[in-house]
Amino acid sequence: MKKYIILFLAVSNSVAFGQSKTVHKSITSDGNALSIHVSGTIEGDDFDFDRTFDISSLEKVAKLVFKDKILDSLDVFISEISENPAIPNAPKVPKIRKSLNVPKQPISKEVKYNTECGELFLRYKYEKDGEEYEYERTINAKNKSESERMHMIEETERELGLTIIK
């Protein structure tokens, strides 16, 4: 696992070498929690992402997929910043706190369970700190009880920092 992280950091640093970009990534996991910290400066714009996710209920493969999706979304965001450096007053990335913030804007939630293949599909649309977000997740919930599926939904909402009023 450490080899992959070191390799990833080495490749990302070598790609960023020729640009006015400084990115620091720190990823740690003890099997129950995944901590990701990415911060830096791109063309004078500072950003900071610091989040810890509870992954204790996920299987080993799901933990890896979850980590990859988070890192992919951060890499896309970082590349979007570096592609548009000439835009004046570019919005700063809000620091995501470890505390659970309840959005004051409406939240759209869609949950679908496919009994044939055992997939649980989740989609959330919400606004947080003036930014609009859309999050989709498909979970393998084959042979899981309804209460276990509800627990998966609650964990996802907790990781996103959402509280859905029922």
How would you describe the overall organization of this protein?
- This protein is of the alpha+beta class.
- The relative contact order is 0.11.
- About 4% of the residues have low confidence.
- A 3-stranded antiparallel sheet has the order 1-2-3.
- The protein has 2 domains: 82 residues, no CATH class; 53 residues, no CATH class.
- The protein is built from 3 helices and 6 strands.
- A hairpin with a 2-residue loop joins strand 2 and strand 3.
What can be said about the biggest beta sheet? 3 strands, antiparallel
> Quick one: overall form?
globular
Question: Roughly how many Å is the radius of gyration?
Answer: 18 Å
| Secondary-structure content class | alpha+beta
**Poorly predicted ranges:** 96-102
Given the structure, what is the number of helices?
Answer: 3
Q: Give me the strand/helix succession.
A: HEEEHEEEH
Number of domains: 2
Strand order, largest beta sheet:
1-2-3
Strand content: 25-35%
In round numbers, the mean pLDDT is 75
Query: What is the count of β-strands?
Result: 6
**Gap from first CA to last CA:** 40 Å
The helix content is 25-40%
